[in-house]
Structures are given as structure tokens and as C-alpha cells.
Amino acid sequence: MRSLPLIIALLLPGVAAAQEATCGGNFSAFVSGLKDEAVAMGHDAATVDAFLSGVRLDQRVMERDRGQGIFQTPFIDFSRKLISQDRLDRGRGLAERWDEVFTRIESDYGIARGVLLAFWAFETDYGTFQGDFNTLNALVTLAHDCRRPEIFRPQIFAALELYERGDFDPSRTTGAWAGEIGQVQMLPKDILENGMDGDGDGHVLLKTSAPDALVSGAKMLASLGWRYGEPWLQEVVLPANLDWSLTGLETTMTVAEWERLGVAAREGALDDGRLEASILLPQGRGGPAFMAYPNFRVYFEWNQSFVYVTTAAYFATRLEGAPVYDAGNPNPGLSGDQMKRLQTALAGRGYDVGAIDGILGAGTRAAVRDMQAQLGLPADGWPTQDLLNRL
């Protein structure tokens, strides 16, 4: 499912040239530059030549990179598309099948099995489709493109190191269009840093071994800051008189402070009152409401799409036994073109909304919330036609 690159700690330490490397231009010259840089880093010239000998530009990768319209879909629609009874049933079945592995992960890393099951489901449909793009071609294509070369160029050299270890085949290793490999889709640098032999066979095989993939994914989440044994997301019920400007990831208070404002768990009880948390309204005050704990923020180290992250975190709670969320009756949102108009208007007023892409990301939500407060509207961060008209 992955339509957005894993945005994680991607830069090779100590290789300043990778941050300033050229991009674009003649592709052959670009590849020659990669070879020179690899040799300068200490790699054997003949090995580098063999590694890059058949690399080519993949136009399909460019098309996929520029066609991520799915992330314009609102949370309710997006989550209903991705979460089915079949996926729930298969996830619970796999939790039983690999119970020993998940139990070990829960003990070693404090990560609930639902969290990894949700990633496994969304990334590769539990390993059934891991992508058919040549990984090296994908990485070099995206590094050659000048949109995010600082992300992908270091991954080429990480793949080269895997090749030197015998764990990467330039002509046969395949995966997602953005260069991720295996059942939970990890980039080469993450495999180097977090790859684990989960089944004890002496190898790290993320494409064919579910235990290897799951334990490696757990180690990566831990390295990204996952807090042992803590929750990540919980559906809540909000009082009608809540100050909506307090919602959003920009504001954190303790669970106890939220409770004093009238926030309650929809089912069961809220977690430790000392934990910091934010109130998340994916589609404004009329839609579902969640309490986002510190671990929820780790999801953004895995993927930066708000709608993907929220859906993955929610699905993890479903796999852990939570009920279907109360969809409520949210105010109709904006179309992609309307969202672009809104982003343009907000940017013109000095707000940092990132790219004008029609996607309601964190920057746009924060700007909407601030603008709503200035205009005397409920500041819930959900853009409406009324707000667009006023702007």
C-alpha cells in the first residue's frame, strides 16, 4: 500500500557530500558521480562498477511518486478502504500463528502486536504483495530526481553495503516504488541498522521470513523512539463545550488534565493520568475523536502522511480489540482543488503549509486552526467551504 516513502533517519553519518550532492542532468554522468562518491567512501571500484553496471532510470517510479492522490482522501473514507473484516480476521489469525514471535517482541520492545500487524497489513497485505519495482533502479531514479535527493542518495550506498554482504542483488532485488524492501517495507539503511534474525537461521531475510520482518520492524520502531509498554491511540468522547483550539498535535496536556476538561474514553478508561497526550480530530469536531499518546508521534517517523498514520494507529487498536470508531457527522470537507486554493490562501498569509498539494497535512491543519480562531470559527483544524469562502 505504501505510496509515500518511509521518512526516517536517512542520512549516512559523516557523509556531508550526500547532503549536497548534485541531482538531475545527464543520467550517465549522474551514475558516474555515484561511483566516484562510493569509491571515495572506501568501496572497491570493481565492486561499485558491478553494483551499478545495469542501473537505469525508471519512469514508472517517477509516475508513482507524483501520483499520490490517495492521501487527499479524508480519514473516514481512507480507513474504510483499508480496513476490512477480512484484514482483521487474517491479522488475528497471524497473531496466533506467530504468537511466540509477537510475545518476544512485546517482552523485548514493549510494542503491542497490533501495531506491527497493522503495518504488515498496510505495507504488503501481510507479505502477499511486496512490490515488483527493481529496488536499485527505484533508489537511483529518486536520487537523480531533484525533489528529495538527500533522502534517497544515501540509500544507494546502504544498498551497496548490503550487496557487499551478499544480501542485495542489483538485478533481482525488488520492492516498493520508493525503494523499501520486505514484508514491512524497510529501506536499505534501516535494514543495515535494524535488520534482525527473528527465526534464528543465521540470516536476515525480510522478504521471505515473517519473524525476521516483524522483529526488524520492532527494532526500528524502538530506535525511532517507541516508549516501552505505552499506548499510542485511544478513541475518546469530548464535551460539547471543549475549547477546540486545544485540539491538534501542537497542544499536549496530561491525561488527568484532559479528564478535568471532560474528556473521557469511549470504552474503558483513559491511560495513566501522568502521560502527556493530544486530542486528534481527523475530520473536525463532528467526526471521530482520539487521544494521541507520545507513541503516536513515532508513526510519523515511519510515514509522514497524516491520514495513513492515523489509520494505521487506529487499525492497530482494532486488532487489539477496540470497537469501530464513532464516525459522527463531520462537516463536508474540501476537494483536492479546493484544498489547494485554501493552502495557497494560507501561504499568502504567511503560514507554512508545505507543498501546495491538496493534502491536509500537519502544517495545513495548524494554519487552519489558527485562522479559524482569528475568524471566530470553532478552531478544530478541519477546513470547510465556509472557511475557504471567508479567505
CATH superfamily of the largest domain: Bacterial muramidase
What's the CATH architecture name of the largest domain? Orthogonal Bundle
Sheet with the most strands? Answer: 5 strands, antiparallel
The order of strands across the largest sheet is 4-6-7-3-5
Give the number of domains. Answer: 3
Q: Quick check: average pLDDT?
A: 91
- Name the shape in a single word: globular
Runs in which pLDDT lies below 50 for 5 or more consecutive residues are 1-21
**How many strands?**
7
- Highest-level CATH class of the largest domain: Mainly Alpha
N-to-C terminal Cα separation, in Å?
A: 35 Å
Radius of gyration: 22 Å
The oligomeric status of these chains comes to single chain
Task: Please report the number of helical segments.
Answer: 18
| Secondary-structure element order, N to C | HHHHHHHHEHHEHHEEHEEEHHHHH
Description:
This protein has three domains: 16-66 and 130-223, Helicase, Ruva Protein, domain 3; 233-319, no CATH class; 336-390, no CATH class. It is 48% helix and 5% strand. It has 18 helices and seven strands. It is mostly helical and 391 residues long. It has helices spanning 16-20, 27-40, 45-52, 59-65, 75-82, 85-97, 99-109, 113-124, 135-144, 149-164, 188-194, 210-223, 255-260, 294-302, 306-319, 336-348, 362-374, 385-390; strands spanning 133-134, 174-175, 233-237, 253-254, 264-265, 276-280, 290-292. The chain is globular, with a radius of gyration of 22 Å. Helix 8 (113-124) crosses helix 15 and helix 9 (135-144) runs antiparallel to helix 10. The model is unreliable at 1-21 (pLDDT under 50). A five-stranded antiparallel sheet has the order 4-6-7-3-5. A two-stranded antiparallel sheet has the order 1-2.
